[in-house]
UniProtKB/TrEMBL annotation:
GO terms for cellular component: cytoplasm. This is 2-keto-4-pentenoate hydratase. One of its GO terms (molecular function) is 2-oxopent-4-enoate hydratase activity. InterPro entries: Fumarylacetoacetase_C_sf, Hydratase-Decarb/MhpD_sf. It comes from Neiella marina.
Length: 273
């Protein structure tokens, strides 16, 4: 539960240090460390400190949804978090049936699979340089069929709410980039995505069915980065949001995300070593 009393500077620093230490060592935490930030501003302060402690560079960002009933409280409909290079997996194609990618997760922590469309940014974006009200399609170099692996050293991270998720870098621990989507402007509308875990079909949904679509998610991301003073370099990859949902699973599970005619992405989740 988010606090109503502002966090002190020391609390923000301590929360960030605890999250960073666990995340970057592959350790586990019993719960969210300390009080949960009461605002998104506090949460992004924690995230900024976790980013500054990261041993790997940022190569992408994830976008997640805030539940509709909490959007007024937090003053936003989405959240963002960084994708670090060590959990970036570029395939550039679909898998054959006998292929898979092995992905490390926090065994005993939070683990979920999310089918996502990935946007590649086509130009450097300086903070405040884009008026997103005029559209953002010109910033898209390419779109890909992809997957986000959500995993955290906090086993029940999502139960603490959006501010906790932001603090722990958006619950992000993997980006898989599959085949490029040629003519994405029309193909997305024609594609149904299915997520399968351990041979069970979990859900199906339209590829473009996320709130306000992939371009709406991108516009939010650019505006959020502008407020935070973050430059987005050309080539940055953006996980635009879960198409079929956030599907919790366990270590050693096997998942397949099917993108219709675009092909499949097969994944085995293993413990971090």
């Amino acid at each position: 539960m988010a606090t109503t009393t502002p966090l002190t500077k020391d609390e923000i620093v301590q929360t960030a240090e605890t999250l960073a230490s666990a995340r970057f060592s592959g350790g586990l935490l019993e719960g969210f460390p300390g009080r949960v930030p009461g605002t998104l501003d506090e949460a992004y302060q924690v995230q900024d400190l976790v980013i500054s402690a990261a041993p790997e560079p940022i190569v992408g960002w994830k976008i997640g949804m805030i539940p509709p009933e909490l959007r007024e409280q937090y003053g936003a409909e989405r959240i963002i978090g960084p994708v670090f290079d060590n959990v970036n997996h570029f395939l550039g194609r679909a898998h054959d049936d006998n292929e898979k990618i092995v992905l490390p997760v926090f065994a005993g922590g939070f683990i979920a699979v999310e089918a996502e469309i990935v946007i590649e940014i086509g130009q450097d974006i300086e903070p405040g340089s884009v008026d997103t009200a005029g559209g953002v399609e010109h910033l898209v170099k390419a779109m890909y069929a992809g997957v986000e692996i959500a995993s955290s050293p906090v086993p029940d991270l999502n139960s603490y709410g959006p501010a906790a998720i932001i603090s722990d870098i958006g619950n992000q621990h993997g980006m898989v980039i599959g085949p490029v989507i040629e003519n994405w402007q029309t193909v997305l509308a024609e594609t149904t995505v299915e997520t399968i875990i351990n041979d069970e079909s979990i859900n199906q949904a339209p590829a473009n069915g996320i709130h306000n679509g992939q371009l709406g998610a991108l516009a939010f991301f650019i505006d959020c980065c502008a407020k935070r003073g973050i430059k987005v370099p050309a080539g940055t990859m953006i996980l635009t949001g879960a198409t079929t949902g956030v599907h919790e699973t366990l270590v050693n599970s096997f998942s397949t995300v099917k993108y219709g005619a675009l092909g499949n992405i097969n994944m085995e989740l293993v413990p971090i070593k």
